[in-house]
Amino acid sequence: MRRDHRSARLAVATAGVAAMLALAGCTVSSTPSPSSSEGSSTLATGLQAPWSIVVLDDGGALISQRGDGKVLEVTASGQLRTAGTVPGVVSGGEAGLNGLAVREIDGIRWLYAYHATEEDNRVVRMPLSGEPGSLSLDTGQVEDVVTGIPRAANHDGGRIAFGPDGMLYIGTGDAGQRERARDRAYLGGKILRVTPDGEPAPGNPFGTAVYSIGHRNVQGLAWDDSGALWASEFGQDTWDELNRIEAGGDYGWPDHEGKAGAADAIDPIAVWKPADASPSGIAMVDGTLFIAALRGERVWAFDPSHPETEPWRARFTEEYGRVRDVAAGPGGRLWLLTNNTDGRGQPREGDDRLVQPAFVEG
Questions:
Q1: How far is CA 149 from CA 139, 220, 246, 266, in A?
Q2: pTM for this one?
Q3: SS3 8
């Protein structure tokens, strides 16, 4: 397998960030020293079914918790606190509070959140105020951005991200209605592209919010250095996928899974057996695309500049358990979010955790 030279450029971590354990009521029990093993640093512990990381400009982060709808702030100094609870979250199965994104518009910093209600999945936004260490959600000014995304016990998608074009991209799942994933009028099984206010983005291929179709369950969105959009996708029983997304592209589900070579669909760039992947969040760090793997309990590293030369390799296999999300942390470092407390994993001491893992050449 090809040697991942880009990962070698990421320096070995040293313990530089303290972790503070917060209980469910956001009370702090202790201020432990940073946990470090072979150069890795544990940045936060005691998280409950976390789903999404948003790295902030000050070196801190926001984390969503799927089950209780809380948005947690991890400060650059390692404090963990609750910034607020997104109103209206109704969790169950794979639905709840999922993806987060932050965007400043006309002097207002907005927190965008993908979450489930009793009837649907939707994206909302609300002002995020305060200074680092005291960030707060203004839950009295919640605005709907996109509503009516289908909800089910499984295949709820949930990843959101702003692209280089300033538009909001939304990954959805087919919500069990697999036969409608290629239906342009159905918001499930799609990647959506909207303005920050939720209108269909200019230049969308069908004149609606729909950007690409034929997806089963999109849970990762990221852009490479050339501006190309990549998406991770849960397969069914045979192949999980990493797709390079084209405007108006049809990725074949449910008629095709994996590299089918079909004339009516776009093949994935990389595929894995579900036992080795079940991919969730993805992130670009120093030219390498990292893919969080849940069932596979690892992070896959992929070089998008050489997609034809078997460019993926496994990192941290079974080291942290299930991995839900990855992000580009300060200083070009990779951060990862474990997911062992949602009922599908086997929690370890301190789980769930936000971790800055070590990278070593090899």
A1: 21, 17, 21, 24
A2: 0.90
A3: helix
